[in-house]
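Request from the bench team (R.T.):
"We need a structural guess for the complex before ordering more pyridoxal-5'-phosphate. Sequence and SMILES attached. Just send the tokens back."

Command: build protein-pyridoxal-5'-phosphate structure.
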Amino acid sequence: MSIQANLQRVKKQLPSSVTLVAVSKTKPNEAILEAYESGHRIFGENKVQELTAKAEALPKDIEWHLIGHLQRNKVKYIAPFVTMIHAVDSIRLAKEINKRAEQNNRVIQCLIQIHIAEEDTKFGFDFNEAKDFLASEELKELKNIEVKGVMGMATFTKNEEQVKREFTTLKSFYDSQQEITQNIENCQFDTLSMGMSGDYLIAIEAGSTMVRVGSAIFGSRN
Ligand SMILES: *Cc1c(COP(=O)(O)O)cnc(C)c1O
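Reply to R.T.: structure attached below.
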């Protein structure tokens, strides 16, 4: 199947309220252009160096999303152009993104990464930490970021009940923060980023508004 055919197939499965981020990491510019030529504009990458090289070479109306873990010392390279950063996992990172966005006269959209999988990982807030972060006075000061919602990754497992449970838990948290964030100027909660190639249909059922799909569009990665 061609990239364009894969893209159409995935898009047909998504309700119009769900945004598709085509995850192009490790794939060449030609692959991205193929999707671009069929009208797609939102692409996701997980490495800063790869993202900046692609953004430089490819059409300027592409909306780039950084979906992976981001080190603070690399924020400056993507701040001039990145649309959304999906994996904000500390107040220090949020502050750095805010600082670099301000230097570029921009507002950068951010999602709070929450650790929902049973697997051990270093990255992401737990629910209590995320709640504290969203309620903090420090966050309110960051005028050059806009917190659009939350992002999570389910456990990598064939157990669909478990995946569904994890996504449903994240959706509940997202809903629970709607009211609290309503009066915070730089919070605009409308994005629940969950679902990848193997689990995006489950994620949508659980209430996802943004899926990050790579291999189902571009083929498997090495
Ligand atoms: C690679 C990646 C994806 C896409 O993975 P696929 O299984 O290829 O769809 C989504 N989200 C994040 C954070 C990723 O790193």
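Two things stood out. The longest helix spans residues 160-181. Residues 23, 25, 46, 67-68, 196-198, 212-216 surround pyridoxal-5'-phosphate (CB under 6 Å).
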